[in-house]
């Protein structure tokens, strides 16, 4: 009986939290989609935008890194499952079988990325293929189904004291007969992606700066 009561209480709390999130999300959705980015950065065209002209959603998130683009680039190049990981919550990634193990050093053997290089996200996940590779400037990958374009851009400060690290996702939803995929993407995937991507951006900054991550 006690177990049932506890389980019921937990499920009830989850239901209430979900209801609040659904009710309030439209108010903070823009913040979620553009965390850390300026209004100009969110609107500015980036390499790879042309690869998915009509996305359902675009996220543009950013941090300032106290290091030049050349110091950040190797950490981006070695990202991926079976490679340098994603610098985020590995345990969450690995719940989905992604095999992520975030490196804490630059791995010379993983610095030979090229246009056309591929990596699969999990056993049944999409294949990401490198479409744009401009060293110390832009790295863009696209999924094999064409529904996801993920771009990183490195913009040096005017005084060359730091770099804006910008991550942009352009996502299209497959055609569906119901609204469920769209609702799931909006109310579950968008907030969830912020949690993971924020940790990733801060993790890259920590590593490129060679020190302790500071929060934002």
In short:
The chain contains 5 helices and 6 strands, in the order H-H-E-H-H-E-E-E-E-E-H. By secondary structure, it is an alpha+beta fold.
Q: Could you tell me the mean pLDDT? A: 85
> Which structural class matches the secondary elements?
alpha+beta
The total domain count is 2
Using the 3D structure, state the CATH architecture of the largest domain.
Answer: 2-Layer Sandwich
Total strands: the figure is 6
* Strand percentage: 15-25%
Shape descriptor: globular
Order of helices and strands: HHEHHEEEEEH
| Spatial gap, N to C terminus | 44 Å
Outline the structure in words:
The chain has 216 residues and is an alpha+beta fold. 38% of the residues lie in helices and 20% in strands. It is built from 5 helices and 6 strands. Helix 1 packs across helix 5 and helix 3 crosses helix 5 (180-209). The longest helix is centred in the first third of the chain and has 32 residues, at 2-33. The termini are far apart. Residues 2-18 and 212-216 have low confidence and may be disordered.
């Amino acid at each position: 009986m006690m177990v049932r009561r506890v389980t019921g209480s937990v499920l009830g709390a989850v239901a209430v939290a979900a209801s609040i999130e659904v009710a309030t999300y439209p108010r903070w959705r823009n913040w979620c989609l553009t965390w850390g980015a300026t209004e100009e950065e969110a609107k500015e065209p980036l390499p790879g935008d042309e690869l998915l002209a009509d996305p359902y959603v675009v996220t543009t998130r950013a941090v300032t890194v106290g290091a030049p683009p050349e110091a950040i680039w190797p950490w981006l190049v070695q990202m991926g499952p079976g490679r340098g990981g994603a610098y985020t919550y590995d345990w969450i990634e690995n719940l989905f079988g992604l095999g992520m193990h975030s490196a804490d050093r630059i791995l010379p053997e993983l610095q030979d990325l090229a246009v056309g290089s591929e990596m699969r996200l999990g056993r049944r996940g999409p294949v990401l293929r490198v479409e744009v590779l401009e060293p110390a400037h832009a790295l863009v990958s696209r999924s094999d189904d064409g529904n996801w374009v993920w771009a990183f851009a490195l913009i040096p400060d005017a005084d060359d004291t730091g770099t804006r690290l910008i991550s942009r996702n352009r996502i299209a939803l497959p055609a569906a007969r119901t609204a469920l995929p769209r609702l799931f993407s909006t109310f579950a995937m968008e907030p969830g992606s912020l949690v993971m991507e924020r940790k990733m951006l801060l993790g890259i900054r920590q590593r490129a700066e060679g020190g302790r991550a500071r929060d934002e």
